[in-house]
Amino acid sequence: MFDKTSWIRLPHNVVVGHGVLDQTVAAVEDIHLSGRPLIVASPTPYSVAGERVVAQFEDADADPAEVIVEEASFEAVESVIETARSVDAGYLLGVGGGKAIDIAKMAADELNLGFVSVPTAASHDGIVSGRGSVPEGDTRHSVASEPPLAVVADTEILAEAPWRLTTAGCADIISNYTAVRDWQLAHRLKNVEYSEYAGELARMTAEMLVENAGSIKQGLEESSWIVVKALVSSGVAMSIADSSRPASGAEHLFSHQLDRIAPDAALHGHQVGVGSIMTEYLHSGAKGQWIDVRDALASIGAPTTADELGIDDDTVLEALTTAHEIRDRYTILGDGMSEAAAREAATVTGVI
Ligand SMILES: NC(=O)C1=CN([C@@H]2O[C@H](COP(=O)(O)OP(=O)(O)OC[C@H]3O[C@@H](n4cnc5c(N)ncnc54)[C@H](O)[C@@H]3O)[C@@H](O)[C@H]2O)C=CC1
Ligand SMILES: O=C(CO)COP(=O)(O)O
Ligand SMILES: [Zn+2]
């Protein structure tokens, strides 16, 4: 008997373009969100966009409340939940990079309230996804969360953000190549459920970004447009899969482990990009496509070496050899790499 079921939860409104921040209230009214909005932002994004969002809701007599968050942690999610309860929030808006958006998303899920995503950087593909990702102790939790009901991505703001944030977003997309390979491997070896649609969408998104790499240039607002569209597409792939599998494989395990060993050394996207070079080597060998991954990253100006990430060789080796421990997700790392094999992979690919 056929007994499969699936829920694909996607945003109603994805508003992207020049100056669309000023349409935040309209995007919210269009989907009939009601009650008091709570704006959740980290400090810089608050001054870059949050203040304007608050002013817009004030002009609309919506009585907005606000809370500033610093780090992606369960404590931060808890404090947003408390604030939301104390101000009797009707829905939450996450304004910022991946961390502020994840915190607001997870708090909204816990509160059973609507969530709106207002990215100020094209730095990660959690903008649209129904996943929240925060570290806890020695592990990383990627939890099913309330996906955004609306997304407001103003390319003027994204283009004015530091360029490295945009190259990090590109690298997070390029890492889909290895993430999908890991997912397929887990399907073949461990019978993990695989979605052709989600896998193909994630892979095709990476391919289109690489094909457009020549148009992704600092100072061009069109670059932010290209990158944010790819980030949306990758987030949709995660929603279709109801898992971060289409966009997160061993390269993400490596990055999550770096976050523990060398906190704040580099951006998420940059770490997964370098991880991808090495895990592609593990998938396809010395003459394999790791060279294409490295060249794609280099062409948009994303880091390709440990030096460029600002970490030392031993940190790379420690992260590679322990990455498999961070969560129960089967990848090309299997049950762990030996130090000699990790050194070989990192050296052949020029990462160390
Ligand atoms: N939930 C999901 O599906 C996904 C979650 N993530 C998570 O997202 C996080 C990474 O996101 P990032 O954005 O790289 O880190 P982040 O949120 O820490 O932002 C990086 C820095 O950029 C600053 N920033 C943001 N917009 C700015 C602007 N317009 N001008 C100046 N500075 C600005 C922030 O204040 C912060 O200091 C990680 O925790 C990662 O696990 C990443 C991908 C997918
Ligand atoms: O970063 C992500 C996808 O790009 C989310 O994946 P995780 O589930 O590994 O946090
Ligand atoms: Zn990522």
TrEMBL record:
<feature type="binding site">
    <location>
        <begin position="98"/>
        <end position="102"/>
    </location>
    <ligand>
        <name>NAD(+)</name>
    </ligand>
</feature>
<keyword id="KW-0963">Cytoplasm</keyword>
<feature type="binding site">
    <location>
        <position position="252"/>
    </location>
    <ligand>
        <name>Zn(2+)</name>
    </ligand>
</feature>
<dbReference type="GO" id="GO:0006650">
    <property type="term" value="P:glycerophospholipid metabolic process"/>
</dbReference>
<keyword id="KW-1208">Phospholipid metabolism</keyword>
<keyword id="KW-0479">Metal-binding</keyword>
<feature type="binding site">
    <location>
        <position position="125"/>
    </location>
    <ligand>
        <name>glycerol</name>
    </ligand>
</feature>
<keyword id="KW-0862">Zinc</keyword>
<dbReference type="GO" id="GO:0008654">
    <property type="term" value="P:phospholipid biosynthetic process"/>
</dbReference>
<keyword id="KW-0443">Lipid metabolism</keyword>
<keyword id="KW-0444">Lipid biosynthesis</keyword>
<comment type="similarity">
    <text>Belongs to the glycerol-1-phosphate dehydrogenase family.</text>
</comment>
<feature type="binding site">
    <location>
        <position position="252"/>
    </location>
    <ligand>
        <name>glycerol</name>
    </ligand>
</feature>
<keyword id="KW-0560">Oxidoreductase</keyword>
<keyword id="KW-0594">Phospholipid biosynthesis</keyword>
<protein>
    <recommendedName>
        <fullName>Glycerol-1-phosphate dehydrogenase [NAD(P)+]</fullName>
        <ecNumber>1.1.1.261</ecNumber>
    </recommendedName>
</protein>
<keyword id="KW-0520">NAD</keyword>
<feature type="binding site">
    <location>
        <position position="268"/>
    </location>
    <ligand>
        <name>Zn(2+)</name>
    </ligand>
</feature>
<feature type="binding site">
    <location>
        <position position="172"/>
    </location>
    <ligand>
        <name>Zn(2+)</name>
    </ligand>
</feature>
<feature type="binding site">
    <location>
        <position position="125"/>
    </location>
    <ligand>
        <name>substrate</name>
    </ligand>
</feature>
<dbReference type="GO" id="GO:0106358">
    <property type="term" value="F:glycerol-1-phosphate dehydrogenase (NADP+) activity"/>
</dbReference>
<dbReference type="InterPro" id="IPR032837">
    <property type="entry name" value="G1PDH"/>
</dbReference>
<feature type="binding site">
    <location>
        <position position="256"/>
    </location>
    <ligand>
        <name>substrate</name>
    </ligand>
</feature>
<dbReference type="GO" id="GO:0106357">
    <property type="term" value="F:glycerol-1-phosphate dehydrogenase (NAD+) activity"/>
</dbReference>
<feature type="binding site">
    <location>
        <position position="268"/>
    </location>
    <ligand>
        <name>glycerol</name>
    </ligand>
</feature>
<comment type="function">
    <text>Catalyzes the NAD(P)H-dependent reduction of dihydroxyacetonephosphate (DHAP or glycerone phosphate) to glycerol 1-phosphate (G1P). The G1P thus generated is used as the glycerophosphate backbone of phospholipids in the cellular membranes of Archaea.</text>
</comment>
<keyword id="KW-0521">NADP</keyword>
<feature type="binding site">
    <location>
        <position position="129"/>
    </location>
    <ligand>
        <name>NAD(+)</name>
    </ligand>
</feature>
<feature type="binding site">
    <location>
        <position position="172"/>
    </location>
    <ligand>
        <name>glycerol</name>
    </ligand>
</feature>
<feature type="binding site">
    <location>
        <position position="172"/>
    </location>
    <ligand>
        <name>substrate</name>
    </ligand>
</feature>
<dbReference type="InterPro" id="IPR023002">
    <property type="entry name" value="G1P_dehydrogenase_arc"/>
</dbReference>
<comment type="pathway">
    <text>Membrane lipid metabolism; glycerophospholipid metabolism.</text>
</comment>
<dbReference type="GO" id="GO:0046872">
    <property type="term" value="F:metal ion binding"/>
</dbReference>
<dbReference type="GO" id="GO:0005737">
    <property type="term" value="C:cytoplasm"/>
</dbReference>
<dbReference type="Pfam" id="PF13685">
    <property type="entry name" value="Fe-ADH_2"/>
</dbReference>
<dbReference type="InterPro" id="IPR016205">
    <property type="entry name" value="Glycerol_DH"/>
</dbReference>
<feature type="binding site">
    <location>
        <begin position="120"/>
        <end position="123"/>
    </location>
    <ligand>
        <name>NAD(+)</name>
    </ligand>
</feature>
